[in-house]
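Whiteboard transcription, Tuesday session. T.W. wrote the structure tokens on the left side:
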């Protein structure tokens, strides 16, 4: 009569097999999490092994290796989700249309407001900007849309939209550009009233 060995016996004989698979796959395991996965795989293999299907050692290697691969995939997927969530949170926090403070986000208000109803100003400005820069002005300034929404509408990334905004801001900070658009006169006349 061929009696099935106990799991303790199987563990003593195959503990090095788990370490070997971890080492072979170049897994750093300082907290023994992968070893625990390998141990669970060994237990499952012990419970489901059928002698007529093949060698026990081959089956154990197969089960341990695949369990470790599954664990690595789960960990990688979780890390990727964390990175995406952190990036999304950072993007929302650094969206250039809001001041951030302890009381929350509030829209940025201009120190010297541009007359939003001056169609000549907007046409003049539009003529001096690229299509993408004008889209940023239209969406972010005039329509007060968040960068994420602009990126969705334009089928691009939030970083691309931010870059459009940086380009516009660089132009608007140039004194020559102010003179060309007559912004100084508009700001002077609006501050007199």
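and on the right, the sequence the group agreed on:
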């Amino acid at each position: 009569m061929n009696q099935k060995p106990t799991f303790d016996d199987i563990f003593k004989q195959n503990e090095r097999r788990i370490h070997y698979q971890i080492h072979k796959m170049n897994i750093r395991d300082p907290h023994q999490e992968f070893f625990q996965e390998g141990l669970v795989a060994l237990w499952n293999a012990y419970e489901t092994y059928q002698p007529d299907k093949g060698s026990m050692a081959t089956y154990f290697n197969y089960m341990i290796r695949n369990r470790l691969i599954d664990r690595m995939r789960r960990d990688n997927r979780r890390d990727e989700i964390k990175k995406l969530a952190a990036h999304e949170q950072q993007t929302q926090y650094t969206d250039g249309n809001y001041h951030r403070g302890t009381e929350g986000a509030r829209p940025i208000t201009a120190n010297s407001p541009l007359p939003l109803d001056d169609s000549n100003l907007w046409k003049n400005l539009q003529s001096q900007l690229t299509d993408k820069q004008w889209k940023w002005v239209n969406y972010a300034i005039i329509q007060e849309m968040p960068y994420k929404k602009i990126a969705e509408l334009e089928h691009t990334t939030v970083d691309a939209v931010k870059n459009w905004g940086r380009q516009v801001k660089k132009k608007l900070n140039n004194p020559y550009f102010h003179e060309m658009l007559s912004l100084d006169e508009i700001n002077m006349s609006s501050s007199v009233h």
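Someone added at the bottom: Residues 184-193 have pLDDT under 50 and may be disordered.
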